[in-house]
């Protein structure tokens, strides 16, 4: 299974903010959309990603104010990305080795979607269900 197949099921909706937004504004969007990370996109260029983990470690634990801090102050700029043709195994390896939970999907340097660890896990479970069903039908014939 490829990233593109996950996106065709999940959808390609992407939420983003600007690096000049406050962290509070970014968190508000994340809360409204029920997402754990948000992309920072400016002029169609992916500049970074802000996750709940970034907020917890760089704002809460340092006693900063999310209403005074700007996204660019705490966003991750070394963003790990994938392409639509990448497979699930590659995505799992990236998420594990790079310790990330969200992978923006780029095509021709434009963000066309984002997948999360839960999207990958759901896809793998579906593949395993199909394999088990196939094996069961093979055994019972």
UniProtKB/TrEMBL annotation:
Gene3D superfamilies: CBS-domain. Keywords: CBS domain. Residues 8-66, 75-131 form the CBS domain. The keyword Transit peptide does not apply. The keyword Cell wall biogenesis/degradation does not apply. This is CBS domain-containing protein.
């Amino acid at each position: 299974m490829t990233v593109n197949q996950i996106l065709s099921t999940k959808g390609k909706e992407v939420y983003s903010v600007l690096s000049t937004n406050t962290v509070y504004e970014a968190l508000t969007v994340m809360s409204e959309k029920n997402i754990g990370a948000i992309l920072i996109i400016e002029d169609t260029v992916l500049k970074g990603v802000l996750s709940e983990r970034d907020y917890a470690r760089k704002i809460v634990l340092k006693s900063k104010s999310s209403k005074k801090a700007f996204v660019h102050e705490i966003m991750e700029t070394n963003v790990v990305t994938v392409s639509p043709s990448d497979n699930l195994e590659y995505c799992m390896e990236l998420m594990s080795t790079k310790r990330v939970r969200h992978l923006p999907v780029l095509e021709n340097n434009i963000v066309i979607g984002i997948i999360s660890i839960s999207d990958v896990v759901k896809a793998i479970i579906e593949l395993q269900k199909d394999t088990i069903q196939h094996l069961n039908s093979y055994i019972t014939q």
